[in-house]
């Protein structure tokens, strides 16, 4: 045989071998960026006895291909491993839609010493969150213009372990400038966020009813929501007197300075302005979303009444208002300082009731950490410490553990953490396990006991949190974002392949 014939035969054999072996490797890595996933497959099945679908919890196999859910098969046994499709049998663990947190402060660019895209999204992945929506403050600059928005999106690229969308900021400087608001929304902001009280950040001023009303008309045009920190300071005796440090250390002092009337007043105004917010004769009104409701008394009654009379209003509350009560907060323990404040135990129980009865639409973390020094832990000064609770990673075990004591079912929990928040953020391919959706999934063990910071690593930038040492139920085993296994049992994927989510 001459050498060219030999070469021909060798090539033919090589092609033959490749075509035999190709089906075996065809689900490996194709279309996946190296490092994005701890699992080297693009086509695979997840099986468990407890898969949470819109039809209920059932034994099922979820088929994932190219980042999407391509089929859900109700069956009592795991599918057989084949050459073409890898199978992971999770036994009795729960397979649920990944959680969507519409209220996080990742603080990048500008305040990465408080948190950041890498640390925040790694914590999210470890906590079963597959999508976060970042607040327009406390980054520098605040996200109140198209330029600042573009800077934030640029800063996020290549640094996200889960998908992240962004709210734009509504402040007095842009509220009456329709062009500026249009530009911010066209740049991809999923909606806007505003404060009706001082925000604690100098370049993020508070808005009044006129600012909000004007912005709502533009938001109605885009059909995107306005999220509002609903507290308006009310006159009080405290303003007139100097409060000394021994009193500033008392939690009761802080609670007195921020009574429920602050929430009530803001909510009354929001309900009033929500009435006439159609854009140029269109039939759709603007949507107002009240963030982090704490007061479960008059404020909640106002929201219920407004909803009953057809107002387009939704409301969230946060794990810290459901897990803690004022009675248990020690003087000086500023880890618990947040705004609005954590109120008494009766208030907490009414929040649980409202949540179960469907009057509160969703949960969010309001993860708002700062650098440790700003919490003034040594002085324990409640009036001067940074207000914000660090909690992103713990949302699932906290709300599940306390939720169980209040009769909350798994499907309700998932609606509150995934389905409804995804809808608020306009993410129709996320939040439920249905064919065609993004394969954003958390696999977790609701019965496993954990202790925050002990047998449970905290991935936030700083470990300071009022949950430190808490015994809870529920540990995340695996988190998938668009089919990428981004977290498994204490390990993260090596490359950050989450993407910025922009409104289109
Ligand atoms: N600026 C900021 O993050 N503030 C948040 N912290 C808090 O406790 N409530 C808030 O609105
Ligand atoms: Zn707020
Ligand atoms: Zn917040």
Automatic annotation (TrEMBL):
MF-aspect GO terms: allantoinase activity; cobalt ion binding; zinc ion binding
Domain Amidohydrolase-related: 94-486
Occurrences of domain Allantoinase composite (ranges): 39-93
One CC-aspect GO term: cytoplasm
Catalytically driven reaction(s): (S)-allantoin + H2O = allantoate + H(+)
Protein's pathway: Nitrogen metabolism; (S)-allantoin degradation; allantoate from (S)-allantoin: step 1/1
The EC number(s) this enzyme carries: 3.5.2.5
Cofactor: Zn(2+)
Pfam families reported for this sequence: ALN_composite, Amidohydro_1
GO biological process, one term: purine nucleobase catabolic process
Entry keywords, A to Z: Hydrolase, Metal-binding, Zinc
Enzyme class name: hydrolase
Keyword Transferase annotated: no
Assembly, per entry: Homotetramer.
NCBIfam families: allantoinase (TIGR03178)
Assigned protein family: Belongs to the metallo-dependent hydrolases superfamily. Allantoinase family.
Function: Catalyzes the conversion of allantoin (5-ureidohydantoin) to allantoate by hydrolytic cleavage of the five-member hydantoin ring. Catalyzes the first step of the ureide allantoin degradation followed by the sequential activity of AAH, UGLYAH and UAH which allows a complete purine breakdown without the intermediate generation of urea.
Protein's recorded name: allantoinase
Lineage: Eukaryota, Viridiplantae, Streptophyta, Embryophyta, Tracheophyta
